Amino acid sequence: METVERLHGLLEAATPGPWVQTQEIDGVFSGRQTVIKAGSDDSPAFPYRRVVTVGQTRQHFHIKAEDNVALIAAMHAALPALLDIAEAAKVYADELWAEEYCCRECADAGKEPSREYAALRDALSRLEGDDGE
Ligand SMILES: [Zn+2]
Fold first, then answer.
1. Strands 19-22 and 49-53: what pairing?
2. Residues 41-93: tens digit of each pLDDT
3. Separation CA 26–CA 63 (nearest Å)
4. Ligand 1: distance of its center to the CA of 116 in Å?
């Protein structure tokens, strides 16, 4: 699951959360929820700081700017659990495979996999290799 490994690396390199969607104070998006900040107003040692800013000084094609920023913040919050789920699903898929086939030869002999195993295998295969770039 190369994508899972890549996402672990990206998450580790990124600013720690929680990431909070908040209002732009400046520029053409002033007053709109197009900024993500991390940190806390309560901690002087770790004050709020900008993590993501969308189109602060020029209007780009950001018609859905708030929705896009909301998605980034939500993905950052959900990603650790989703990665854990992906890894657990891989273990479970391997267990299902072992229940359904006694060996690789039998698996290659053409017996249809269960719908559950096929669905997991197909979903997990989308996390292999192609990282969407
Ligand atoms: Zn066999």
1. unpaired
2. 666 666 678 898 887 777 666 678 899 999 999 999 999 999 999 999 999 99
3. 18
4. 20
CA of 101 to the centre of ligand 1 (A): 6
Q: Which amino acid makes up residue 133?
A: E
Residue in this structure with the two tokens 């806390």, named with its chain if needed: 40
Burial class (CB in 10 A: 0-12, 13-18, 19+), 21: middle
| Spatial distance between the Cα atoms of 118 and 114, rounded to a whole number of angstroms | 6
- Asked if 23 contacts 32 with a C-beta cutoff of 8 angstroms, the reply is yes
The span from the CA of 2 to the CA of 81, in Å, is 17
Ligand 1 center to residue 129 CA distance, Å? Answer: 28
Predicted model pTM: 0.80
Q: Which of 14, 49, 51, 54 is nearest to 34 (CA)?
A: 54
97 Cβ contact partners less than 8 Å away, ≥ 6 residues apart: 107, 113, 117, 121
Distance 5 CA to ligand 1 centre (A): 32
Q: Ligand 1 centroid vs 102 CA: distance in angstroms? A: 4
Domain ranges of the chain: 2-125
